[in-house]
Specification:
By secondary structure, the chain is an alpha+beta fold. Among the domains are: about 140 residues, no CATH class; about 110 residues, Jelly Rolls (Sandwich), CATH 2.60.120; about 130 residues, Immunoglobulin-like (Sandwich), CATH 2.60.40. The chain is built from 25 helices and 34 strands. A 9-stranded mixed beta sheet has the order 13-16-22-18-19-32-29-27-26, with helices on one face. Strands 14, 15, 17, 20, 21 and 25 form a 6-stranded antiparallel beta sheet that branches. Strands 28-34-33-30-31 form a 5-stranded mixed beta sheet, with no helix packed on it. β18 and β19 form a beta hairpin. α5 runs antiparallel to α6. The chain is elongated and about 125 Å long.
């Protein structure tokens, strides 16, 4: 023991150790003050605004522990989400660095405490890492202390802490990477290269966006500085080999985990893309205002009035804080002036990343700057608009996060400034120390974003605790999971209940999860309207489906807001009174009444569903159902999905009736990723797709308008050729000025799957006529007529080659002895203006009419169809074994003529 004390005393005699411990003490004390009251409530609070991402990242840290302890789970294989099938989420692998760092804490502490400690340590460790780097660059420990303080507590980082953005505050690996990269290029060695590689791996795996927002620009700066300093002596085998080791090893380790996400980012329709780039860009005025929620500056009126336009609520602090601080910028400018030979490159980096953080379009006072030249108006386009085309930057929608790189450079510049001041006060060390102390106090004062620090409740409601105590392990369906705050709360509650949840989104919405989430969540939500284009289950049938999917509880998060009362009333009508109910902390503004968490049990004795199929439309791509008399239709934008769950596999077709206001648009139908059929829509009619195998489980159909979707008035009754008739007592404004525009292509009704054995006559036909066209189907409006009546026959033709008007389709009514008694002869596309609108591979359906002669005797007549060339009248060969093929026609069915009633 005496020897240990002796060694410790020897360590304390070293100035480097004393300074390091001093820095640790300063950064820790400042963290405790700025983050108050979180450090004193580690298990009962969660650092960050209640509407932010803190719950989501708390769940992520907890799940990493589950993945380590349970071999059936994986960090990217989320078995407890998207019930009943789980989901693979490669994006989770890009955050493995955060989870690995927290794992020792996760094995010992509750999830809330683990998250809070990661946030608190991020401030302290960021300061220490930057202190180490700045001390190395300047040779001045006081300068390192100030540089580390700036990088630990700058406002952009604090704003991310308010938003619960754990990866954005976990930035202490960045200075370590730069420090050892600098050592590798200045004094090449395998040890420095290995540490640089390790730090680079963690930097990449904290968040993938760090690669392009930080690693690339800073690496270029370090290498450029070394190249300018060393000239051609830079290119030595030892230095190049050390760099190859650092970058190669990091690429090998991090690349294997990042590759799935990087490859996905290259796809144009990647699920990683999210809108909001302009909204998540820095406002130019943000550089000139501290936080409007500063506890001292704001009451004194020292915050500019325009700050309230930018930071209209505390949620705006998440991404928009960019104020570098007067003291930090003053020191940075002084360092740039006095140490310009060493500091100029960091000044360039600070200026460039600050410019890029403004995003693709210039925004001032939360408004895009619009300018006019002659008669032309345009927004001010910034350089980030070009960089947005880079794959990984296309994934990122948050250019404001480049502010971290800006402040990294500012911290280095400020340390150069302090070093220059220190040399001026070399003969007065006490004054220098006092000056540094005052600078730290002043910078810390400026860097207060909001105080006390916002925090959410970490308490697990009694309802969830009681569910967790039950032996059953069925799923929980959190009603209105699509609401972000419900989703995040549900994830956090899962850390206690450890039950699967229906749906669930973490970091990104994975497309494969949407069908299950939309379908099962829809069972516990009221419908948008009284009817729809698909059959919908009644209340008792919904309960049966919920039990079929092994859902034990529907959990309702009630806050008197929007339409919550409507949803709660529906859940009570569906499942009766709640089994468990309790009060939970308010999720919204201070003073708002507390919400109620209610759990409604799904009866265990619920019968099996009566139907073998369950339908649901995707949330995106469709307008709400609209009524046209007794008919319910649903309009599509330009791309919409239909989900169909089946309890068994079977062969059949998709049948639907479709109409459009467009002129002969093409409609594509996909099953999964496979094109199933294409149709040309001329007028409202029913189509049947080619047969396919409906799999047991979830089937996803995609309807697509390849021709695009024009903007039109949003109310179809206001169109000149309305496709929807006015409903009784409907009060619909038809003033174009009062109706917004939207996108509509096709109107669907009566959408269903029909098994092969249940198809009606004429469906599922596929007859080849001379390799030019194929008869895909037919129907008649009736089969019993009287003389003088009109028979309507609907034909569905598929073009297999380019056609012209030299082909004629004939529909003949033949007497029992084969005599022609009535006919219809016309081009194969009916009223279609040109064959160009009927591309090969698409099916076009249209009706033809046949006038029945007044004198036609009673009896059974044959209806046949064929195609001949014009003008030689030679029939196209019928290349199929069907009735009538011997004379190159297809016999449709018999039509009975009966005597007139009078």
């Amino acid at each position: 023991m005496t020897r240990i004390v002796y060694l410790f005393q020897n360590l304390l005699r070293r100035p480097s150790v004393r300074w390091l411990l001093g820095a640790l003490l300063i950064y820790t004390a400042t963290t405790l003050i700025l983050m108050y009251p979180v450090p004193f409530h580690l298990s009962t609070m969660i650092a960050g605004h209640e509407r932010g991402d803190a719950y989501q990242y708390t769940w992520s840290l907890w799940w990493a522990k589950q993945a380590v302890l349970d071999p059936d789970k994986g960090l990217a294989h989320l078995t407890l989400m998207n019930h009943p099938v789980g989901i693979d989420h490669p994006f989770m692998l890009t955050l493995v660095g955060v989870n690995l760092i927290a794992l020792p804490f996760s094995l010992l502490l509750p999830p809330a405490a683990v998250y809070n400690l990661q946030i608190l340590l991020s401030f302290v460790l960021s300061g220490l890492a930057m202190y180490w780097l700045c001390t190395e660059l300047t040779g001045d420990r006081r300068a390192g202390l100030v540089g580390g303080f700036i990088f630990a507590f700058f406002l952009n980082k604090t704003g991310h802490a308010v938003g619960g953005h754990l990866p954005q505050v976990t930035v202490y690996w960045l200075p370590i990477y730069v420090l050892f990269l600098w050592r590798t290029v200045s004094r090449p060695g395998w040890g420095s290269a290995l540490v640089a590689s390790l730090a680079l791996v963690f930097t990449c795996l904290i968040h993938v966006i760090h690669i392009v927002y930080f690693i690339l620009p800073v690496t270029v700066v370090v290498l450029l500085v070394a190249l300018v300093k060393l000239g051609m002596t830079f290119f030595t085998w030892r230095r190049l080999a050390a760099l190859l080791l650092a970058f190669g090893l990091a690429a090998l380790v991090a690349g294997s985990l990042l590759l799935p996400t990087v490859l996905s980012s290259l796809a144009d329709d990647s699920y990683l893309y999210k809108v909001g780039t302009v909204d998540h860009s820095i406002d130019l005025l943000s550089f000139f205002t501290p936080s409007p929620y500063h506890p001292v500056l704001s009451p004194l009126g020292w915050v500019p009035s325009f700050a309230n336009k930018i930071f209209y609520d505390q949620e705006a602090l998440y991404e928009r804080l960019a104020y570098p601080g007067v003291l930090a910028m003053g020191l940075a400018l002084w360092g740039l002036i006095r140490q310009r030979r060493k500091a100029w490159i960091w000044g360039v980096l600070a200026a460039l990343t600050a410019l890029l953080s403004l995003g693709p379009l210039l925004k001032v006072g939360d408004r895009l700057v619009l300018y006019q030249v002659d008669m032309h108006q345009s927004y001010v386009v910034l350089p980030y608009a070009l960089l947005k085309q880079v794959p990984l930057l296309r994934v990122g929608r948050t250019p404001g996060r480049l502010g971290e790189t800006t402040m990294f450079a500012v911290a280095i510049l400020a340390s150069y400034g302090v070093a220059a001041l220190g040399r001026s006060l070399a003969r007065r060390p006490r004054l220098s120390t006092v000056l540094v102390g005052l600078l730290l106090i002043g910078i810390g004062f400026e860097y207060v974003a909001v105080w006390p620090f916002p925090a959410s409740s970490a308490e697990i409601p009694e309802t969830i605790q009681r569910i967790a105590d039950e032996p059953d392990r069925g799923a929980l369906l959190h009603v209105l999971m699509k609401r972000r705050w419900v989703n995040h709360r549900a994830l956090y509650y899962q850390t206690a209940a450890e039950r699967p949840v229906v749906g669930g989104e973490v970091h990104r919405a994975v497309p494969e999860a949407q069908p299950w989430s939309d379908m099962l969540s829809g069972l516990a939500q009221p419908d948008e309207a009284a009817g729809d284009a698909v059959s919908r289950p009644e209340l008792t049938e919904r309960v049966a489906w919920l039990r079929h999917f092994d859902v034990d509880y529907a959990v309702f998060h009630h806050v008197p807001w929007r339409d919550d009362a409507l949803h709660q009333t529906f859940v009570e009508a569906l499942l009766g009174p709640p089994r468990y109910e309790d009060d939970t902390p308010s999720l919204f503004k201070k003073g708002h009444s507390g919400g109620t968490l209610a759990a409604f049990s799904i009866p265990t004795d619920a019968p099996a569903p009566k139907s073998s199929r369950l339908y649901a439309f995707s949330r995106q791509g469709w307008h709400p159902p609209e009524q046209d008399g007794d008919l319910w239709r649903r309009w599509m934008y330009d791309d919409g999905q239909l989900y169909l769950y089946s309890t068994r596999g079977e062969v059949g077709s998709l049948r639907f009736t479709v109409d459009s206001h467009l002129e002969f648009p093409v409609l594509e139908v996909y099953v999964g990723e496979q094109l199933l059929d294409s149709f040309v829509v001329g007028r409202r009619m029913t189509y049947t797709t080619r047969p396919f195998t409906l799999t047991q489980g979830m089937n996803v159909f995609r309807f697509r308008a390849p021709g695009g979707c024009p903007q039109i008035l949003d109310v179809p009754r206001c169109w000149s050729d309305a496709l929807l008739a006015p409903t009784e007592n409907a009060q619909v404004p038809c003033d174009p000025e009062a109706v917004r525009t939207t996108c509509r292509t096709f109107a669907f009704d009566h959408v269903s799957f029909v098994a092969q054995e249940n198809r009606i006559a004429g469906e599922g036909l596929d007859v080849n006529f001379g390799d030019r066209v194929r008869l895909r189907g037919w129907s008649t409006d009736r089969t019993v007529l009287q003389p003088g009546a009109t028979l309507t026959v609907t034909l569905a033709w598929e073009a297999t080659a380019d056609l012209s008007d030299q082909y004629v389709v004939f529909v003949h009514l033949l007497s029992p002895d084969g005599t022609l008694v009535a006919q219809h002869d016309a081009p194969p596309v009916g009223s279609l203006p040109s064959s160009a609108a009927w591309p090969p591979g698409t099916t076009f359906g249209y009706p033809v009419t046949i006038e029945i002669p007044d004198s036609l005797p009673s009896g059974d007549y044959r209806l046949v169809v064929g195609v001949y060339r014009w003008p030689d009248l030679s029939r196209l060969l019928v290349l199929a074994d069907v009735p009538g093929a011997e004379i190159n026609v297809v016999q449709l069915e018999s039509v009975r003529i009966v005597p007139s009633a009078h």
